[in-house]
Amino acid sequence: MKITYQGETGAYSEIAVYKFFGNKAKPTPCKDFRDVFESVKTNTAKNGVIPIENSIEGSVNQNYDNFLTYDLKVCGEIAIKLEHVLITNPQTNPKDITTIYSHPQALGQCRTYLEKHKWELTPTYDTAGSVKIIKEKQLLNTAAIASEKAADLYNMKIIARNISDNPANYTRFLVLAHQDAPPTGDDKTSIIFSAKHAPGTLYNVIGEFATRNINLTRIESRPTKTTAWQYNFYLDFEGYRTEKRCTDALQALEKHTTFIKVLGSYPRII
To answer: Where in the chain is the domain with CATH 3.40.190.10?
Structure first.
């Protein structure tokens, strides 16, 4: 079963693929998040797995925007604990390190550790990809932040462990598909909407869920990119989209919004 993800072999996204699909999965790396969406859209891959938020650094904004562009559904979620380590070539002397490579999110998640040193930080497209770069280029003055699995895969040396600012460092991933998941009785639904530009509109939107005893688990705003100072809201709530209380809430939102897109319902794990 071909499942796409952004990054290189050994990336946390690949770990998320195996956690959700098991050994039947054939993880296939992509250079960009958009490539993951495109592969599912064109049926090049059965599913895609993309990160959507981190417990330290927050949202992966590019993927929120991709959900507006692509008409795909969310059929599952995965939470992965990120255990960052500092990785070098086997010949590297830690005293010679001047530069750190990693994905911007990983650099942000290890900010406190990195600020103790005078290293230059170089963002890359992927955590595991940064390990691949320093190995292929034999950069002996450069280290990478990635997973222990990435160090093992590329036969590199780990010189520091547990370097995240917070040991409770988790990333939530979503599984892309053409259809969402069947109801399980313990589900979550994700939607995008744009609220009408009027006093109290967002308050009224939230009230439609509150009056029906529907718990909201996340709400995030992003610029529409079409009109200055106008925003789309990304909202997750507990319940399956076809449950009566959820259906009633979604129908009631129509009078408070100019646009609603249901991304899908899926088993809740968080």
So the answer is: 2-81+169-177, 85-160
CA–CA separation, 242 and 65 (whole Å): 25
* Topology of domain 85-160, CATH: D-Maltodextrin-Binding Protein; domain 2 (3.40.190)
Residues that are catalytic: 171, 173
* CA 54-55-58 angle, 5° bins: 55
Which helix (H) or strand (E) segment holds residue 61: the answer is helix 61-69
What is the pLDDT averaged over residues 67-90?
97
For the segment 95-123, the average pLDDT, to the nearest whole number, is 96
- Distance from C-alpha of 261 to C-alpha of 259, rounded to nearest angstrom: 7
Question: Quick one: 2-81+169-177 is in which CATH superfamily?
Answer: Periplasmic binding protein-like II (3.40.190.10)
Using only the alpha carbons of the chain, give its radius of gyration: 20
Q: Tell me how far apart the 2 most distant CA atoms of the chain are, in Å.
A: 64
